[in-house]
Design a protein that fits this description.
The complex is a heterodimer of chains A (about 425) and B (about 240). In chain A, about 55% of the residues lie in helices and about 15% in strands. In chain A, the strands form two sheets. Chain A has a six-stranded mixed β-barrel. In chain A, strand 2 and strand 3 form a beta hairpin. Chain B is α/β, with parallel strands linked by helices. Chain B is about 35% helix and about 30% strand. Classes of the chains: A alpha+beta (about 425), B alpha/beta (about 240). Chains A and B meet through helix 1, helix 10, helix 11 and helix 13 of A and helix 2 and helix 3 of B.
Chain lengths: ~425, ~240
């Protein structure tokens, strides 16, 4: 117990010696620690911006609807192999999937068309999605004003349209849009609702869109060429309940579709099925690389800071050679001298690290409030930053400290 | 008689300096008993400093033996030498060698850090030693606020705080005026009367006269080793 308390007090002594030494050369200590401060600031911000990118990508994916699969009637072009089989996807397939799959919250067959919208000389070009009410469920979207596409609209092929906020603003400005007439590729439609805003993701405006009943698109706006039958679809969204195992569901869907189209087992599937989970994984891979590159670049400044520490510690050892000699004469062992200088370097770095971290938290808060970009700095990052600073001190202070400990006591005492 | 405190046997120390071999200590054999007050004298380059470094466990002989309190220092590791310096030897230097921005109390406590004592024990012992040397009122003074004599007394307190077997003083009065020098020598005499061995290195004959025995070095050899006949007594 006495040994432990003596050890603790030994380290405490080293810290107090370090603080005295650092205070003696205050300006020099400040300038030196500036390097570490900037380094830690850069690294912590890089980590924060990287995490922020991750968060915003995840949020973007979540706006798609949290748990779903998207089926395209195109073969995956994996490994460069391609099939000649052009996939087809029909409303019958959609109904079959709905019937056979479990854990579904909704299914949303979709046709897409690029349309020109005109209202009294104002016009907008946007992509129209031909949908069923299921789209609202799967994509978790509804009308902000007016109403959404209903089953009756789909059944009757009604000429009704729900506008995204961007489109609505372009066409109607500040005026009330719901109830107004709009020409869609010269055909008159009635605006029945305005969608709630979904912001933008991946630089794409999610509000630049218009929703029309799928049957109406098929009858009046059909973009024929790549549709092979009267109930062909461009895309099919399948929404799942929370907790459904998406990879298993994907396998099941592939099986069902393969059976329906009698695709031989060793042929490439003519369908591409992507799940939100896969999007997330891919995005987190990409943002992970992004974060890694940022941190690597920022680390260079920390490295430079570390070299500054080493430089100033070498100067300090040289200046205090006589003190080292004296301490040795009074009974300091080599490791006592080494530890003294290691602690001094670590303390210097940790002070820089703490200031750098504080500044980083401030800058991140500024980012968040001014640029609306999340840059979270968690407790883990903070602790890492401080430990990392200490590590920088120990590694770059190591050589000067060992040099100090190897001095000959006689020569050290004799030096001026 | 008990074993001597230190015993040098055919002690040699040679350096190679600029391609030339320098015999700094060239075959010295002598012994110093516990409780002696010895002055080691000689001009600069006579080998007295090298000899003192070996007594102080700061250096090891090239050949021969230095036996300190029964331990042959030639076979020790650097850590073991550090421990001997810490426990058995108290150093007093010409330039005092106090840490500048550190109070008298903390200066005196430095050797106790390396002895592994707790902060409280260090302070208690350091305070006691400073009080013993008449500096009880100046515990919190930094060296800059102390006179030369006071600084040297702080240094002596620091040398004594680990209760060593001997004091090793290298030109302790070299930076002091005559009166202060006499005071400091008086302290050494009093300590010696209290039982501690004092080894004093000096080139001033009148300072050497405070000792009981004088050893004179020249060219690395002892040329005279005799009792001081007209011993001075500090008031």
């Amino acid at each position: 117990m006495g040994r432990v308390s003596a050890m603790v007090s030994g380290w405490a002594v080293n810290v107090s010696i370090a603080l005295t030494a650092l205070r003696t050369n205050l300006m020099r200590s400040i300038l030196t620690t500036l390097g570490v401060m900037i380094g830690v600031l850069a690294v912590v911000l890089a980590v924060a911006v990287g995490s922020g990118a991750k968060v915003s990508v995840m949020e973007s994916i979540n706006t798609l609807g949290s748990n779903m699969a998207i089926i395209f009637p195109q073969p995956e072009s994996e490994g460069g192999r391609r099939t000649e089989t052009r996939g087809r996807l029909t409303e019958r397939d959609a109904r079959a999937l709905e019937k056979q799959l479990s854990g579904i919250v909704g299914i949303a067959p979709q046709l897409r068309a690029t349309v020109q919208l005109v209202v009294q000389g104002r016009n907008a070009s946007t992509s129209a999605l031909g949908i069923t009410p299921g789209y609202g469920v799967v994509s978790n979207i509804t009308s902000d004003v007016g109403r959404f596409i209903s089953d009756a609209d789909v059944r009757t092929g009604a000429r009704v349209i729900v506008l995204g906020q961007t489109v609505a603003t372009t066409l109607f400005g500040e005026f009330e849009a719901v109830g107004q007439s709009v020409r869609v590729n010269r055909i008159p439609f009635t605006v029945i609702g305005i969608l709630e805003s979904k912001g933008s993701s991946f630089g794409q405006d999610n509000d630049d869109v218009a929703l029309i009943p799928i049957s109406t698109v098929r009858q009046r706006l059909a973009t024929g060429s790549n549709l092979q039958g009267p109930d062909d679809l461009h895309v099919l969204f399948v929404g799942f309940e929370d907790g459904v195992n998406l990879p298993a569901a994907k396998k099941e869907m592939t099986e069902i579709l393969r059976n329906r189209y009698r695709v031989p087992a060793n042929d490439i599937s003519p369908f591409t099925i992507r799940t939100t989970e896969e999007f997330m994984e891919e995005s987190s891979k990409v943002t992970g690389i992004f974060q890694g590159v940022l941190v690597a670049i920022a680390s260079i400044s920390l490295l430079v800071g570390g070299i500054g520490i080493m430089n100033i510690m070498l100067v300090s050892v040289t200046e205090r050679t006589r003190e080292i000699g004296l301490r040795m004469a009074l009974g300091a062992r080599r490791r006592d001298i080494r530890n003294q200088f290691l602690v001094e370097a670590a303390v210097l770095c940790m002070i820089g690290g703490a200031i750098g971290l504080t500044l980083a938290i401030g800058v991140a808060a500024l980012f968040e409030s001014m640029a609306d970009f999340p840059a979270p700095i968690g407790l883990g990052t903070s602790i890492m930053a401080i430990l990392f600073s200490a590590g920088i001190g120990l590694s770059f202070g190591g050589y000067p400290a060992i040099r100090a400990s190897r001095l000959s006591p006689i020569e050290a005492l004799r030096s001026e | 008689m008990a074993t001597p405190l230190l015993e040098a046997r055919a002690l040699h120390k040679t350096y190679v300096l600029g391609g030339e071999t320098v015999r700094a200590v060239d075959g010295v054999s002598l012994s110093i008993d516990r409780g002696e007050f010895v002055a080691i004298m000689g001009a600069s380059g006579s080998g007295k400093s090298t000899f003192m470094n070996m007594i102080g466990c700061l250096d090891v002989p090239t050949s021969g033996q230095m036996i300190l309190d029964g331990i042959d220092t030639g076979s020790l590791s650097s850590d073991e030498m550090a421990i001997i310096r810490n426990r058995k030897i108290g150093f007093v230097f010409q330039q005092f060698n106090l840490l500048n921005r550190t109070t008298a109390l903390d200066n005196v406590a430095v050797p106790l850090i390396y002895a592994g004592l707790s902060t409280v024990d260090r302070r208690t012992k350091a305070k006691a030693k400073l009080t013993e040397l008449g500096l009880g009122e100046r515990l919190d003074h930094t060296p800059a606020k102390l006179s030369g004599g006071q600084q040297q007394r702080v240094a002596i307190a620091r040398a004594l705080v680990t209760e060593p077997l001997m004091l090793l003083a290298d030109e302790p009065t070299g930076a002091l005026d005559t009166q202060t020098s006499a005071d400091i020598m008086g302290i050494f005499q009093r300590l010696n009367e209290g039982g501690i061995t004092v080894i004093l290195v000096t080139h001033e004959p009148d300072i050497a006269e405070y000792a009981q025995r004088r050893i004179l070095f020249r060219d690395g050899k002892v040329i005279e080793d005799a009792a001081v006949t007209n011993r001075r007594k500090a008031a």
